[in-house]
Amino acid sequence: MSNTPWSSIAWVLGASFFGSFGALFLKIGAGKLGKSIVSVATNWRLMLGIAFYLFSSVLFVLGVRKGELSVLYPMVSLGSVWTLFWSRLILGEPLTRPKFIALGMILCGIALLGLGTR
Amino acid sequence: MSTSPVPLNDPAQQRRSFLLVVCCTLIGAAAQVLIKTGANALGPSPTMVQTALAMVLTPALFAGYSLYGISTILLVLALRHGQLSLLYPVFAMTYVWVTILSVVVFHESMNPYKLAGILIIVGGIAVLGRGGSS
Lengths: 118, 134
Description:
heterodimer; A: mainly alpha; 6 helices; 0% strand; B: mainly alpha
């Protein structure tokens, strides 16, 4: 942790935040999927989702130039916490107990992988 | 223009979407390994132009980014009929595949932390697969 500057952590947390919007817009766009290639290419929600993903990966690359990957890589998984928020707030999906338990387990598991990688 | 609406909680449809996302993560992990292999051939500090050219001309990089494209298409197909809050956490499976592939392909060491991490992530995803949609 001590070798990882705060700026890198901020970049990577930013990447996880914008990445979650990528997931959200892919989901909204997927619900309005057309049959033809043209209608997919002009599906602005889908394209916005992909743009968010690309932006997020640029932030991630900026973040991992310095610092330990074992610390930074697991932080990307916080994107699934943001995504859970948007699923509830914007898509109105039910947040059930299994979803919280599963997310908790997944985050613990990823943190352990981070510890095992240093 | 849009396909016929499917009930959000149709269990069979939800299961199919779930398995599709698991496939996505396997393809995404293979993409990461290919990109890492290709990037090793790129040298320590390539310029933007060198990187862009290498993405097309280096077979491992080209294959890696193509697989990313395929995995994105599969993800969109999966999201069509599944809940985002159920499907998105499954993406953590990528970490599991990358860890296993790194041991197999790059001969990185396996240790108790990694093993515990893999088991807990798979357990969490099993919880989602069994009870998440109810």
